[in-house]
Give the backbone structure.
Amino acid sequence: MPTISMFFGILIRMYFFDDKQHHAPHIHAECQGQQAVYLIETGERISGNMPPNKEKLIQAWMVIHKDELFADWALAVKGEEPFRIEPLR
């Protein structure tokens, strides 16, 4: 599972061939031992838990990088390595 970005203690990942379980483009976020899955289109959390302040950072980052996330998703579901995406600063 490639890590595509890291910021403020948050790891953002995409699994290869990961279009079966959630059936929609999404990312996996991990922070402080918690994990959550977010839809790329809306930023909605569809599973897991995340501290509220970290969730806001993740969702803001997703808005900024939505096009890049969709491009990475297209690569990852075909088993290709997604590109790294700039972190929040």
Remarks:
- The radius of gyration is 12 Å.
- Helices lie at 52-64, 66-76.
- The beta strands are 3-7, 10-13, 26-31, 34-39, 45-48.
- The CA atoms of residues 56 and 86 lie 17 Å apart.
